[in-house]
């Protein structure tokens, strides 16, 4: 974890030169995943990729650099499942068929989502949604082998673990990351058992395909889960109850 911290610090220094500040957290990259100069080009690369072209229902994290992607997905008639900041208010489904077109751009923001999207429990997702076609995230840093370092909280890995546990994704579900070129590392990094390695990385200048990306099958490793995350994230509590009830 100390090594991850030093990597983040180094990357965040470079990112500060190209990132856009957040309205809540300014340049505190430990609290949010930033949008950056060239994210439009990275988004366009992703949109042209088969993992997007063939998708009907996408999971897209609430990261700032993915706001345009969420909007473009609605324009393309796709369903978007996303979470609130830090997952504390759960999962939400953004369905373009139920939202006026002139509200789409607002609906894909954290504030607009809760006004226009449909809240989804894990039980709702399990029974009402098809298999998700792709999992898309921003991140703090990533190497060319797809090993990610986020803000240090593990939210995307928790989201993967929950959705995998209820059967909405599999090890064949592609995972994509959208980052600035300065966030891509060449050094060797090693994933933890619960880390979701990206199958493909999109930057403003490159599309990096990863071969045999590691996909965790452990669900949530409860003994390793931070107690504060469990106490403040209702979907984790719901999953724990579902497992206790043997409904999974």
UniProtKB/TrEMBL annotation:
Gene3D superfamilies: NagB/RpiA/CoA transferase-like (3.40.50.10420)
Top-level taxon in the UniProt lineage: Bacteria
Gene Ontology cellular component list: cytoplasm
Annotated InterPro entries: FTHF_cligase (IPR002698), FTHF_cligase-like_sf (IPR024185), NagB/RpiA_transferase-like (IPR037171)
Protein name listed in UniProt: Methenyltetrahydrofolate synthetase domain-containing protein
